[in-house]
Every structure is written in structure tokens, then in C-alpha cells.
Amino acid sequence: MKDTHKLRGLRQRLVKYLQSRGIDDSRILDAFMDIPRHYFISKDFAEWAYRDEAFLIAAGQTISHPYTVAFQTDLLQIKSSDKILEIGTGSGYQATVIASMGAKLYTIERQAELYHTTNKLLIKLGYDRIRTLFGDGYQGAPRFAPFDKIIVTCGASFIPKALPYQLKIGGRMVIPVGEGEDKMMTVITRESETEFSFEKKGIFKFVPFLEGINEQKQSVISKPVIRVKL
Ligand code: SAH
């Protein structure tokens, strides 16, 4: 894995672009400057890594667009004392951005292939404080709940009931949700034991939030899910 002056220059340009789109938290901008995104995708695409684009990773999944990563991170309003759950480890890039802000992160992936390769990569890069879990994000991570924040990095067609109930009172969850391909970035705040408030933050596209785990290298069609109304 190598970083170069040229790639650092491209990162600097990406940071300027994120600033021009309204990302002004210096901790997020520093994370984008410090973390080489090209480590998380095929090395053949290193020079493309600093465009605002998604790329295919293993198991037919994608690393999210840099702007999407920055925007979701911004919505989380991270504090260094936070305990955070990420659903959809994928390449691990979003996880490192969150961890670099000092928060304690748990991250779940349903694709065995991605879980294994990303877990190894995170250790190799020195992110051994990130706790990677193999499992179904529809269940959240009850063993480690409650969380200050939850971030879902795949597109949901509804909000799985278990998730908002794994937030602390006052905790925030960021989830892209909607019936079709376009997902509404939604911030849910747990106001009390039983009350939640919702804010809509714009339309994004994501790979789907699928139920169940995939232990194979080849993706299988996911089981139908039962709808649970909050
Ligand atoms: N945060 C990732 C985004 C990867 S794409 C990154 O920075 O690269 C979203 C990921 O969510 C995919 O890897 C997909 O396999 C995973 N995913 C989809 N449904 C899931 C579920 N039920 N539980 C856990 N992960 C899930």
C-alpha cells in the first residue's frame, strides 16, 4: 500500500470539493485528508479514488460516494465519547472516518467475504479499536447497545424496529429510507423511551439493506422481510 504526493494532492482537491458542498466540520475534512481512500478499493483505481464516485468492492457491493460519507458523518454530530454502531461495514472506509474522530465504533456486515477482508484491512491499517461484527444489521447489535449514534450505510425500504430502540435517550440515527431506488436520508432522534422525531435531509442512492447473512462468496437472494411499523 503506498501513498504518494500526487494522491495526497488529489485528496486535497476532494476536501475542497466537500467544503464547497457545505461540509465545514474540520474533523471530517481532516479525516478525508488523512485517510487514503485508495487503500479501500482496487489498487488499479487509485487515481480515481478521489473523485466523488462510488466503486465496486467485493460481493457486488460499493464503497459510498465521498460526499455521502461526509454528509452522513456530519449528520451524526459525533462526539469523541460516543459509542456508535455502523450497519454495512463494506470497504471499511466510513468506519475509519468515524473512528478517526475518536468515537468507539462497532460495525456490522452481512457478507462474509467483505467481513473477513475488511476486518484484516482495518487491523493492517492500525484501526484495531474498531469492533467488526458478522451478522444481520436488521437486528442491530443488542449485546453492545445502547448506542449514542447509529449509522446505516445501505438503503432501507423501512426502518427496522430493533434499531431506534438500541439508541440511548437523546441518541441519533442516520438511515437512508424509502420504497424505491431513491432513499430519503433520515435523522431519527430518540426523544424519550417511546418517542422519536424524524428529519428529512435529501435523496441519495445506496446498495440495498438486505435481511439475513450471506456466508457464501456468491450473493444469494435475500428472504422476504416482515414490515414492522414504528
Ligand atoms: N460503509 C460502507 C458502505 C458499503 S455499501 C463503506 O464505507 O464502504 C453497504 C454495505 O451494507 C454492503 O457491504 C452490504 O453488504 C451491507 N449490508 C446490506 N444489508 C446489511 C445487513 N442486513 N446487515 C449488515 N450489512 C448489510
Architecture overview:
Mean pLDDT is 93; it is low at 219-230. The radius of gyration is 17 Å and the shape is globular. A hairpin with a 5-residue loop joins strand 7 (167-177) and strand 8 (183-190). With 230 residues, the protein is of the alpha/beta class. It has five helices and nine strands; from the N terminus they run ααββαβαβαβββββ. The chain has a single domain, classed as Rossmann fold, CATH 3.40.50. The strands form two sheets. A seven-stranded mixed beta sheet has the order 5-4-3-6-7-8-9. The protein starts with a helix and ends in a 26-residue tail after the last strand. The structure holds S-adenosyl-L-homocysteine. S-adenosyl-L-homocysteine (SAH) binds next to strand 2, helix 4 and strand 4.
Q: Topology, pairings included?
A:
Elements: H1 5-20, H2 26-34, E1 55-56, E2 62-63, H3 66-76, E3 83-87, H4 93-99, E4 104-109, H5 112-124, E5 131-134, E6 147-152, E7 167-177, E8 183-190, E9 196-204
Parallel strand pairs: 3-4, 3-6, 4-5, 6-7
Antiparallel strand pairs: 1-2, 7-8, 8-9
Bound molecules: S-adenosyl-L-homocysteine.
